Amino acid sequence: MPKLTAKQNIQAIVSAIKTEEQALRAKYPVLNQQNSIALVILLLSLLSLIGVASLYYMSLIPAWLCIILAAVITSISHELEHDLIHKQYFSKRPWLHNFMMLVVWLMRPNTVNPWYRRKIHLHHHKVSGTNQDLEERLVGNGIKNPLVRAVVIVDGLLGLVISSKRFNKEIKGFKFLTVFNAGFPIATAYFVILYGVIAYYLLQLFMPLESMLPSWGVDVLAVAEFLMVVLIIPNIIRSSSLNFITSSMHYYGGVNNVIEQTHVINSRWFIPFQLFCFDFGRTHTIHHFVPNQPFYIRQLISQKILPIMAQHGVRFNDLRSIKRANLYETKQEGV
């Protein structure tokens, strides 16, 4: 059998993905109610987050359980945002579409706004694997120094500050203030609370600040601490898990086609991180071949599609690429 070209392999994968989706929709006609499904998922996720926060407020669950549950719930809102960016839901009803965009941003306040992210994400699909891919570079892709990479993965704002000088030189049209202002006012408030609480407790090590706070200051601190548990720390866990996986699975340099843009991560060692980013590492590569597809469809067809992708040249668990700053090598090293 003659060896297939990259174009033929890509066509085979795309065809398989679309065929499986069509078969799934034919078997379960309810899947054609795409807008309704997305809205239900969004409302259930929002109500679940509010419910978990309420249980913590009433001292019915401990802080650690609230943090874990909230992190899992907000990972679903990220998948919804991803689909909304590709206008999978309510594209003909802008007010409802934008309402959903706002809600998923509120649930994930440590991100830039979804309308700006749409711009850099669609650009990501065009330039994935190159130094022009701002979206992936913002979360650590292409960074060789492990310490710098860890900081960028965990703290988006600090990562932006660290990388801005390099981005100015390498990325066309990059402006620090454009990205920074894309987080206003929600992400701005998030980081003010986060850094404020950290600064308060660091100062507490050297002086008793609590006795010096006025009554309104005590109330503000209580609200900030509550938000830390129900929203801020969960999103640190969620975004760090997502950033770690996405920056690990996307290649940087040496990329010539869609097959070379990503590898699939389904190693059992990544299960704890997959839990907080809705199995992103195992299913995201499917999205690169067929972007206009709801996230739950990718999940449902992944078991059949992953072996097909492997047959047609998509790599799996190429974790050595992290040591190469995500460089795609034509001759793959042993894993």
Automatic annotation (TrEMBL):
Identification of the protein by name: Fatty acid desaturase
GO process annotations (BP): lipid metabolic process
Highest taxon in the source lineage: Bacteria
CDD domains: Membrane-FADS-like (cd01060)
Cited Pfam families: FA_desaturase
Span of domain Fatty acid desaturase: 61-318
InterPro entries in the cross-refs: FA_desaturase_dom (IPR005804)
Swiss-Prot/TrEMBL keywords: Membrane, Transmembrane, Transmembrane helix
Transmembrane segments: 37-55, 61-78, 176-203, 215-237
